Amino acid sequence: MRRFRHSARARDLRHRRTAAAAAAVLLLVGAATGCSSSNGPDDTLADFLTGWRSGNLDKVGFVRADGGSIKATEVLDQLQALAGDLARSPLVLNAQGEPKVTGDIAAGAIKLDWTLPGGTPWSYQSTVRMTKQDSDGWRVVWEPAIVQSELTTGDRLALRRVPAKRATILDGAGQPIVTPQQVVTIGVSPEKIKDLAQLTADLRKAFDSIDVDVDLKALKGRVAKADPGAFLDLVTLRRPDYNKIRDDVRPLNGTVFREEERLLAPTREFARALLGTVDPATKDDLVANPDTVAAGELVGHGGLQQRYDNVLRGIAGTSVVISRKSPDDNTVEDAQLFSTPPQAGTPVKTTLNAATQRAADAAVGAEPKPSALVAVRISDGNVLAVANGPDGGGVNTAFTAQVPPGSTWKMASALGLLTKKAVTADEPVDCPKTATVDGREFRNAAGEVLGKVPFHTDFAKSCNTAFVGLAPKLGADGLAQSAALLGVGAQWDMGIEAFSGKVSTGATPTELAAAAFGQGTTVVSPLAMAGATAAVARGQFRQPRLITEPAPARPAADGPALDATAVGAVRDMMREVVTSGTGTGLRNVPGKPVSGKTGTAEFADGQKDTHAWFVGWQGDVAFAVMVEKGGAGAEAAVPIVNRFLTTLNR
């Protein structure tokens, strides 16, 4: 901003005008008209301040500095105009002691305490001059300097914002995840379009070539309603993506382009639903945050960027200036009266691991159906990756989904049965084709029949009917206890919305039977199952951790140590799932041995669609994968895990 500079000549003229005005007041007070006060100057000052606060100055008489009359309503209008951008800011007015009286002239000191947008205080003193008339008592000498000593007629107080530097989100190593990157916004201008149908077809072809989905269906309507020279944005691309189609879109009649810098993650997919985006403030942002966000400033939308927007955005600097016309060139000049420097935002530190996140993004990105993957480090509970496929955007299903766990829940049921000593891993348990409880028939996948085999085989081959038969031994209490031991359904605080699960009450025999193998009313998120799997691998529940700075206030407490014999048997059975059970598609992945459990979850009565699951661990990394309407876990979820671990172990 430019500061208004007073020349020596201008200062001299101002001083002479002030002296002349003061003399005029003494000579011409008798010509003033309007309301008056017959009390002393202290009462007149009090009435003036009260009327200023309330917006009613009818009890106060006024006179101009040159002695001319002025109505109270005109004074109110000028007070509003002089306040300018501060007109709606809270203002506290107080007299500072008794006015000083010299004959028929009095001067009262006042203090003005403004609360600027964002809560910033600004205080200063001013002077209210008063003059006494024989017939009408004391009047206030109206002059703009009452509002602020530097103000003159035609001036106004204005606010200037200096945006703070937005902080970034950090990974577990303390490195920035979100950094400034060059982008290009591709749009169209109606006045440049010669053939809209051909332009639309050419743009669709170009966007399809880089696998970017842009909705062009509404383009015709947008063009029809827009001004001829409008910029109708279509998509914003990172510079490398834009460069791939630059030569295809630049020559098209109607296209226009805008280059700028945005705060972005390393790739478009990188934990996108978790992180959110940073974009220029929308109209809704401005309405919701009138005191803290201004047009053109950056605001977080979705995920961590929105959840921690106030932390990341920092506090904008504020300047109060006098906005006035320059006497020489008639342009607007600013004279600064008060300022506070901007306070940069504070970084938000996560536990994400860049390599693990990239592997997770690539793994779910190759699955066309919506999917989610969460990876947790077993040793400390840190969340290493949160991926939502296929493009990473939309809802953070990995944390917030509420779906049945299917046969992955047999991990929890088996732990409960073994802890209660209701069964041993080697004890024969029948696996018939069907099992009926109170008239409801339960089946195995593909009509499988194992007969009477060891319990660990029932587990590895994912026999539903074996668990239906064992459900009475597990009981509703055993179901609840095993869920609690694995942290499912507990109150978690991770610094962002996260669903830890809700476990069936097992209130009826049929509900208990269904819940024993992950159906019924039990619902979980991939995060909840990743946390439960890590607890089995670790031998104790520890709430998964994502945000370390600022740390969540109330994380769930660590659980008790799991029964060593029971959890050891569950680990062996989960290894058997991969070596000879339903997860054999992971036998040959590189790296350390993999243990886990497949799951196929029915989620609506009368529908054939099922969600596909796999939970497991390799080395120090536990994970959970869910594919919406993916079918069998071995068919849809296992291939994602294979891609994930193969990439991670390169």
TrEMBL record:
GO aspect biological process, one term: cell wall organization
> Residue limits of the NTF2-like N-terminal transpeptidase domain?
41-154
The UniProt entry, under InterPro entries, shows: Beta-lactam/transpept, Beta-lactam/transpept-like, MecA_N, PBP_dimer, PBP_dimer_sf, PCN-bd_Tpept
- Which Gene3D superfamilies does its entry note? DD-peptidase/beta-lactamase superfamily, Penicillin-binding protein 2a (Domain 2)
Q: Give GO cellular component annotations, separated by semicolons.
A: plasma membrane
Alphabetized UniProt keyword annotations? Cell cycle, Cell division, Membrane, Signal
Lineage: superkingdom:
Bacteria
Q: Does the keyword Cell division apply?
A: yes
For molecular function, the Gene Ontology terms on record are: penicillin binding; peptidoglycan L,D-transpeptidase activity
What family, per the record?
Answer: Belongs to the transpeptidase family.
Protein name, UniProt field: Cell division protein FtsI/penicillin-binding protein 2
